[in-house]
Amino acid sequence: MNLFLLIDMSRSNSFGRKRDLISEISATLAFSACKNNDRVGVIFFTDRVERFIPSRNGRKHILSIIENILEYQPVSGGTNVANALQFFNRIEKKKSVVFLISDFLDDGYQKDIKITLNHHDLVLVRVVDKAEERIPAGAVFTFQDLETGETAVLDNMRREFRPDSRLSLYKANLINIRTDEDYVKPLQQFFRRRGRK
Description:
two-stranded antiparallel sheet; 35% helix; six-stranded mixed sheet
């Protein structure tokens, strides 16, 4: 099997435990593929493709991938999911299992998700911090965008605010993982569900 990890290294993932969790999930998937003697490749992306590691198998290759996951320092801070998917679809014609691991704090990638789903087995792994899921009512909040440095004020006096996620459209291919939970359980549930189909 050919497996690819598309790993979001943007600055928004430095919020809370997201970066650590993304690293753990990526390493777990790489080691699982190694046990099956699958080929594994990686794309690190921000608002550009930062590093591409072609797919190969073998323990030495997997250990090199793990080292890259743990030590890579991105050049840019933004996010462009569509760009990463477009790059992957250009360079990989062989049908692959693709894990796109991100917080998905971006927009404009829906068309590229559909294109990728037509050619590959795409799994969306959304890593989210509890503090990002809802903003409680009763205060005025000032936020700073970790990627651009811009600040925004949210008057949230009357009702709580929940950011909109369009990923629910891809529920069958989506794994939601929160930083305050064990990530193994949602992965197991997803693969168990798939195994029954």
